[in-house]
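Notes on consecutive records. When two proteins share a document, each keeps its own sequence and its own token line. Never mix them. Below: protein one.
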Amino acid sequence: MSDPRAEAHHASAALRLVAEAAPAYLAALPDAPVQPSDTAKLLADLDGVLPERGDGTLDALAKLVEIGTAAATRSSGPRFFHFVCGGSTPAAQGADWLTSLLDQVAGLQAASPFAARAETVVLDWLKDLFGLPASHGGVLTPSATFANLTGLAAARAWWAAKHGVDVVADGLAGLPRMPVMSSGYLHVSSRKALQILGLGRDSAQIFTRDDAGRVDLTAMEAALAESGPAVVIANAGEVNAGDFDPIEHLADLAHRYGAWLHVDGAFGLFAATSPRTRHLVKGVDRADSIASDGHKWLNVPYESGFAFVKDPGVLRQAFGSWGAAYLAPADEDAVDYNQLGPESSRRARALPIWATLRAYGREGHRAMVERHLDLAARFGEAVEAAPELELLAPVTLNIVCFRLNPEGGGDLDDLNKRLGQAVIDDGRVFMGTSVYKGHTVLRPAIVNWRTTAEDIDFTVAVVRELAAGLV
């Protein structure tokens, strides 16, 4: 079997093979271990040398389905709480399969008017969902890291223009270091974006007033008064405890000193969907750029992110005008999204977003967010009721920051590292450890549409059971 053309007649059967495996896999998600206990053995079946003659379409795919459905981490299930990772709603999952079927060249209007229109529509719907001005420009990205990269690249172009330099054409040579300021909540994805942009991973000035990382507004204002044009990064949803920078106050500072305000709202931007939490992102509509993820709280498949920029022209300045004759610009009524973001080759990732927003609407997504708020509160209450567990931060949103602190104490950091590893090794639920206020903690994040109160109660019971074996 050396040529796919000879097996074209198997194309439909290949899709049916995956579809036939899906019901059993999906049905098992609520109760199956998140991490299979024999993963290493199962993964060994992936190994081997590249075959000279292939197995053929159906045999190769059947083998992959067999391995994948047995060995995959069930991150789309209701008890995966580790990386702020949602599942895929039924509408989004179906649309993602359609995305692969249609295989659109999504970055160019001329290549796929369908994909371009879908992206325009979902960006408008997302701005509406989050309460952002309709005039903002935007682009879909693979992740919040790419969305942060997009927003900060736009900020870099804006900042360089303040110094009379076209940084896109001429680079950073001769320019001073771009001042970047944030709180102790600054996420590694923003640092990575700064690294890629040549601004320096560790270049951000951090202003904190406590060991949690909350922003010191007075110190930041003093720095802005001396810095000239600068970029302020506000963080909507801190990764260890779910806390927020005061975005409205940072927007006031940015306006007062002529700074660019970028908001990293990877999951916290979804606070805007509920009246219960909307106050946490007050002022986000005033930001110059905003980043968020779809594969977190929107519950669409990996990979999915989005970036919004107040001035759409800055996006085109930062990423467009390549000067390639075969990539003629779209007319004024159309848009080439590969000229508004860092990617050139792009899949039609708008389709799962369109499907889930069309299927469940504003009300359905508000209900999902509020259900997760309730489940996080339930988890926090269970932690507080357990004498050997300690809640280390208020449950502000969807993250529960806690640790094992049994009577008699001891080396709590080592104990909680061992507890985190025990949870992962056990496999029934999935969460990891982090460091908060200098302490090793567990910090489950509830964002999956399948998660129920029974999952929360089961998870707390598993943690307490494993903890009892360590003390």
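Protein two starts on the next line and is unrelated to protein one.
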Amino acid sequence: MADYPIELDNVSKEYRLWGRRSQFATLKSALLGRDLKMAPEASVPALTDVSFSVDRGEAFGIIGRNGSGKSTLLKLVSGILKPTRGRVAVSGRIAALIELGAGFHPEITGRENIYINGIMLGLTKREIEQRFDKIVEFSGIGPFLDQPVKTYSSGMYVRLGFAVAVHVDPDVLLIDEVLAVGDEEFSARCIAKIQEMKYRGVTLLFVTHQLDQVRNLCDRALWIDKGRVEAIGDPMRVVDAYLQEVSGTTMATPPEPAAEDAAPAEPEPPPQKSELDEERWGSGEIVIRNVALTDHKGRELVALGAGTPVVIDIDVEARVAQDDFVFGLGIYHADGTCVYGTNTEVEGFVPEKIEGTARVRFVIESLDLIAGTYRLDCAVHARNGRAFDYRRNVLRLIVGSRIHDIGVYRPQHEWKFDGGIAFHSIDPTRQNVPAEIAEAMREIDADKRGKRKK
């Protein structure tokens, strides 16, 4: 098998239930029965045949209802629990934040707990001393460092635990829902630190009910329900499938119109691969019928120049009237980099009602993109993120330009020079040609002029 930092193969975990009948009433009854073995009355499966692997440097999110087996899964990966069946393989140094305050002794100070926790995570005393100041600075609990940990609030527990865990240079970082205890400022700092660790190749496995973090931070996601894998893969799709299940709707089966005399709506065709490799999912209560990129005269565009004014026209049909809806779009470079994304909610539009057919227009006065190929995602969803219709790669656009700068965005600008700086004058038709090519073209023109004089 491939060398993965985390790999689970058909892992199952069962917990034994001990009732009164499985216990001895007295020592005398046990001796008279001549059987000192106790047997559980029943067992409950917490996980059943779970298999997945996580690549090095990947952020892998685990979502699901309370009691679905998420924390049990993390404890199996960390080695706190052993599987009843199957194989769990983890390579590298592991740092875990699984239970609030786990590994801390309440009677001793924060300073002493940093040393004890660091040693438990595999550091030497000298290594802890080298990182001590950074740990304290990140945690932000400096004034209380020499107070007993039992006097700390739950947020201070998390700050200290997370600060130690991320500064032991782990190969694998496991995080349970404990980050939800922290305040907004500390959560933002944690996310920034996690992104930095991803860049350094640290593998992240975390359980959370904060679905936006899964969408924005994770490379893949796992939805687990009643101990079984329901979905695994792209975080957008996995989160949306989970939300559809929680809301009691079925994905990709659009409902019929509410009017009794209306003809039944034809089901949306199943997602098909086009030349754009478009992906599509959602409940179908609102459907995006068409998305077009047009100029100011309404003509559809595929290729355009940098700085072109454009309009994104989105034709929608609400098969069931809704008062909770958000329209969003995202522009991505061909390499997957997100260039820009927004939606009506973040821009302050409060939904009131949508029914029947409608058109949404997103007007861009100047699309200042560097030359290249881009794709467009378009979606309509509920405010909690549950998709009515999500269309990924719905459009492809090609931006052409004589400009040879790099990146994705070109702000309007001009160059100004003062002092002893001079440049050759450039033919305006060649001003966006790289300097080496422009110089070669000048030499060719000079040769031509010389030949004409002869």
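For the record: The chain is about 25% helix and 30% strand.
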